[in-house]
Amino acid sequence: MGVGVSIFFLTLGAILRFAIDPDVLGEAVHIDVIGLIFMIVGAVGIVLSIVMAPKRGHTSEERLMHRENNPPEV
Fold first, then answer.
1. In a domain, 23, yes or no
2. Which of 44, 21, 46, 43 is nearest to 31 (CA)?
3. pLDDT in tens, 33-63
4. Residue 32 domain-assigned?
5. How many Cβ atoms are within 10 Å of 52's Cβ, its own excluded?
6. CA 74 to each of CA 21, 69, 71: distance values in angstroms, whole numbers, following the listed order
7. 21 lies in a domain?
């Protein structure tokens, strides 16, 4: 999950938690709890995206520079 999707979940969760009346769908559905779950998922996604970002592979620009500096042997 990328940072953008995580921010979307965080925002959606905040809207469900704080901006909508908890009893709008009746007592069977606790929309404030669903909002809290979405906020937790969004926060965890942001943290994981930041932690995992340095571990990703080289960018295409770095690969191109490596190829130019180290031409293949023929």
1. yes
2. 21
3. 999 999 999 999 999 988 887 766 556 666 6
4. yes
5. 9
6. 70, 15, 9
7. yes
Q: In whole angstroms, how far apart are CA 1 and each of 32, 43, 45, 71?
A: 23, 11, 6, 36
CA distance 38 to 20: 14
24-36 pLDDT per residue, tens: 787 888 898 999 9
Residue 17 belongs to what domain range? 3-69
Exposed/middle/buried for residue 24 (C-beta within 10 Å: 0-12, 13-18, 19+)? exposed
Tokens of 53: 């970002």
* Token reading at 25: 């769908």
